[in-house]
Amino acid sequence: MASSSGDWGAPKSHKPNGKPQQLKYSGIVKKKDSEVYVGNVPPEMTEEDILLLLRDFHPQHIKRCHSGLRSYAFVDLGSSEQVQAAIQRFSGHLVNGRRLVLSRTGLGNRRKDPAETQSTVEMPALERVPRGELGLSHAKVETQTLQPAPPDAVRQICYAVPMEMRGSFLALMLKDCFQDLNWLVSIAKLHGEAGLLVTDALPQTPYFWAIHLTEESHSNMHKLFCQLAEEESKQPYLTRQAVQRGTRCMAECILGEDGAAWNRCWVLEKVEDLAVVLFVDFGRSATVPLNSLRKLDEDDFWDIKPLAQPFMFQKEIVSARPMVRQILRGKVVGPSPLEPHILTFTFCAEEEEEAA
């Protein structure tokens, strides 16, 4: 496999290199290879926040733009290579409930803001629902004695199931990719002590994706990744016309600072030169260039069911993305009240004590 991801089970930590100097952009915005477009930016995200996010790519200039409900920025990263690396790292990255869209600014004569097509490209990661309909295990509130809750407590319980984790969404993916729904039923059978390798997490929510570590999952991971590594250079890149919603293919999934790994993916939508895909074995969605998708349509590549499945914490919320690629040890205590295939997870007692 073309990957420098290292050991997936090794805990990682991300240490910021300090707050970058705030840089301003003056003059007319020019199309050039060293400039990256950052779209679908949360309105509250400042220039300094964007520069901090892209600090590893040495940003030189930034222009922040607001147009009606749209919010975006143009950032000069100094080179075309830095732009491509930033696109791979942060396209689809979740910030305050929005998935960022990164692309080159020199594609075509008209720079179209991908946020213009947000309704078809960017799936809502979360939906707010009435508190009485949440049913989360840590939201034990008697409606007859309902009192205003502190802001932090409200934030922890006011999230519905993320779109990518809903049974209706997963059923569509399973029918297109695997032609059956058995996985959606079988993953809910896990109960008791378990070790989970986290593959994706949604910050400020209780939701995350993980691989249940068993002999079978280890065997499937080894078999699948060896198969993908062998086929990666043999499979042709897909043409623009071949990429449609529901297309089965493969693409590089950014695992973090250590590199990327080729993985099976399913196309959710495409717009211009970009495609929004779900990496089936990591439970992670991302925006990737259309010309980076390789063919992977033969049924033999889809014999192994998805490696990762959705979980939610019983009490905690995800505070930061660095929990990805860490191993969690604890207990699966039952299904989520909202979606039975999402299992509720809690840490072991001794780990809770150490954390305290």
UniProtKB/TrEMBL annotation:
Q: Which UniProt keywords apply?
A: RNA-binding
Residue ranges crossing the lipid bilayer per the database entry: none
Give residue ranges for domain RRM: 34-107
One Pfam family assigned to this protein is TUDOR
Q: Which residues form a coiled coil?
A: none
- Alphabetized SUPFAM superfamilies for the sequence: RNA-binding domain, RBD, Tudor/PWWP/MBT
Q: What name is this protein filed under? A: Tudor domain-containing protein 10
List the record's Gene Ontology CC terms alphabetically: nucleus
User: Which Gene3D superfamilies does the entry mention?
Assistant: 2.30.30.140, 3.30.70.330
